[in-house]
Amino acid sequence: PLYFLNGTITSAAVKINGTWKEPDVDVKVEAREIAYNEALIGDLKAEIKHHNRMVTGFATIDNDELAQDTTRTLDVRINSLPLDMGLTDVKERLVSGKPVDIQLVANKLSLAAAEPFLPAVERVRGKADAKVSLMGTADKMEFTGNARFFKTSFRTQATNVYYVADGAVSLQGEKLIIDTVVIRNVPRDYRSRVAGVAYASGSLQFDGL
Predict the structure, then answer these.
(1) Average pLDDT of the chain, as a whole number
(2) Are 185 and 194 in contact (CB under 8 A)?
(3) Using 50, 70 and 90 to split pLDDT, how confident is the model at 23?
(4) Which of 42, 95, 109, 178 could be 63's S-S partner, Cβ–Cβ 3.0 to 4.6 Å?
(5) Are 48 and 65 in contact (CB under 8 A)?
C-alpha cells in the first residue's frame, strides 16, 4: 500500500506546452530519503520529457549509506519510449514502429522498492544488483539482462512466517530464467535443529508482455 511510502519532495516542476493533441511535457522531481515500510531506499532525482510522441529522460536513486566508490544505487535511462501523451484523438498510446530503448542499472538497490509490486509478502528487506535493457519497438519489445538479490528477508501474509532468500535470475526476450533461488526459514522459526530449505530453478514465458 502507498501509505507505507515516506519521503520529502524537495522540488517539483511540470511544464506543459503545445496542443491538446500534441503536448510538450517537461517534468522534474527531486525527493529526499525515500523509504518504504521503514526501509530506506535513497534520494530520488528524475527528469522526463515528452515531445513529438516520444518520451526521454532519466531517474536515479542515490543512497549515502553505500560504503563504496559510488552511492548511485539505481540509474534508469529512457533513451526512447514512443508514448503518445495526447489528451485528444489518440489512436495508439504506444506508437507502432518507433524504437524503444530503456536501460536500467541497479547497485545494491534496497528491495523495499519492489515490495509494492510483490503479492502476498511484506516487510521485504535485502539488496539487488541488476542490469536490464528493454529494446525493440512498441510492437515487439524484448528484455535482456540479469539480476541478483542477496541478504533478502520477507514475511508471508498468509502464514506470518519470515524467510530469508538469495538468488539470481536473467531475462532473455520474453523469457524469465530462474538460475538459482534458495529460500530458508529464519533461525527463530526452526521446528527442529535442521533449517527448512527450498531450491528453485526454471523459466517463465511471457506472452504479449
Answers:
(1) 87
(2) no
(3) very high
(4) 42
(5) no
